[in-house]
Amino acid sequence: MSNYLNKVLKDTKKKNLKEPEFLQAVNEVLQSVSPVIDIHPEYEKLAILERLVEPERIIMFRVPWVNDKGKVIVNRGYRVQFNSLIGPYKGGLRFHPSVNLSIIKFLGFEQIFKNALTGLPIGGAKGGSDFDPKGKSDFEIMKFCQSFMTELYRHIGQDVDVPAGDIGVGAREVGYLFGQYKRIRNAYEGGVLTGKDVMYGGSLARKEATGYGLMYFMREMLAADNKSLKGKTVIISGSGNVAIYACEKCQAMGAKVIAMSDSNGCIYDKSGIDLDCVKQIKEVQRGRIKEYLKTYPKAVYMESKGSANPPIWSIKADIALPCATQNDIGIDSAKLLVKNGVIAIGEGANMPCTIEATEYFLANGVLVAPAKAANAGGVATSAIEMSQNSMRYYYTFEEVDKKLEQIMVNIFNECKNASEEFKCKGNYVVGANIAAFKKLAEAMKMQGVV
Ligand code: NDP
Ligand code: 2IT
């Protein structure tokens, strides 16, 4: 590793001591782009790395709202506008009690590289709140979203910053956020948020895009290794937007999904998960995954005891798709998966494997589809939603799905080519980081010191 890289890593650590998730994301990316830095001494003079790790702007704000009992609650809102090099800031909003600045910064940092990989004109951002949507009434969700947008609106815009969903933010929340934005602005600016319902400007296939995109990437990655999804057993953590549509495409590709989870525990159905039943529980009733056993009493439920070693990773399967949250697979879970013969990991969530776990998989010949490449289908389809909003027209489901598939194939090929060019064939983690970094660094050179 060059002195320059070492120094930037040390300084970033010193400046962001209390932000472990952010430092984890930065460490992974910067260490893997080391060979590119070695052949570009001008990057040091231009402070390319220092500028990449420093957000252009961080916005933090108070979100006061009144719950159904008349009590005033105060949450904290965030928007980290990380990088606008190749387009308006773009990235989701996460509503979850664990949200803090470190988590939003890691997500925003990852988003810069992910968005660059899509080949579409979108910069990187992320936002959210420590608001917990669990157990809240529809009215409470609406009041929170309205208060959140009453501050956020002044910082966003369809050519400035375009939020979307993430954990705890789906079509319902995007609807309330959009309604409030439109009311304040007194204008229909459809492209200011993505993940909208198709009734008022959303894109067909956006809901499915992250999960479907993950499976298109997995198909390509397995094919490059003369493998396929057909007949494989799959375990998927999470049972939200990404997990559900990854499961749907997995099943369509001939694989058998045998387990899914939520933060309370996992279900194991060795005859294959009934996805309609999961959709009914999660998308309609907003219930717990355990309720699957009411319909399928022979399925097994395993409770999660803290977040360290989720029980789902002890189930034997060919393929594991972490689609819940960050650091879901640590070294102990990775060892279990490898012992049980896993052949590939597909990161639907952002940074779901710790660095140690990823290294262990790669050292043991397990294929890893890295998050910033493999889950880029969601944001890519958000960009397609923005372009439909600008056209004031729409594409059919099949048209969007075809574009998504092509984008995922392109992303896979870019990761593969970069891994081969830099002599780490088959390491798509490094491939993805290098492919994205090369684009960003060159664009930075072209735009001067800003
Ligand atoms: P959802 O809110 O729809 O679903 C999240 C799922 O993950 C739920 O099953 C949830 O369980 C589980 N989960 C969340 N937090 C935890 C936790 N701390 N411990 C255990 N389980 C947890 O979110 P999405 O499906 O949209 O997002 C899932 C992941 O995919 C996130 O990492 C997100 O950043 C990433 N992603 C999302 C994209 C999108 O388009 N939506 C695009 C690219 C990446 P419970 O209900 O019990 O909380
Ligand atoms: O992590 C992600 O890429 C998302 N949550 C989707 C972002 C978006 O703008 O669609």
Describe the structure.
The protein has 450 residues and is an alpha/beta fold. The chain contains 18 helices and twelve strands. It has helices at residues 3-15, 20-32, 34-38, 42-45, 48-52, 101-118, 138-152, 171-185, 206-223, 241-252, 275-284, 292-295, 331-339, 355-363, 371-374, 377-391, 397-421, 428-447; strands spanning 57-66, 72-83, 89-95, 124-129, 161-164, 233-237, 256-261, 265-268, 300-303, 319-322, 344-346, 367-369. A seven-stranded mixed β-sheet has the order 9-8-7-6-10-11-12, with helices on both faces. It has a five-stranded mixed β-sheet with strand order 1-2-4-3-5, sandwiched between helices. The model has no long low-confidence stretch (mean pLDDT 98). NADPH dihydro-nicotinamide-adenine-dinucleotide phosphate (NDP) is lined by residues 96, 98, 165-168, 170, 210, 238-243, 262-264, 307, 323-325, 348-350, 375, 378.
Which tags fit this structure?
single chain; 450 residues; alpha/beta; seven-stranded mixed sheet; five-stranded mixed sheet; 18 helices; 15% strand; binds NADPH dihydro-nicotinamide-adenine-dinucleotide phosphate; binds (2Z)-2-iminopentanedioic acid
What share of the residues lie within helices? 40-55%
Structural class: alpha/beta
Alpha-carbon Rg, integer? 21 Å
Q: Tell me what portion of residues adopts beta-strand conformation.
A: 15-25%
**Would you count the extended β strands for me?**
12
Mean pLDDT figure: 98
Order of helices and strands: HHHHHEEEHEHEHHEHEEHHEEHEHEHHHH
Number of distinct helices: 18
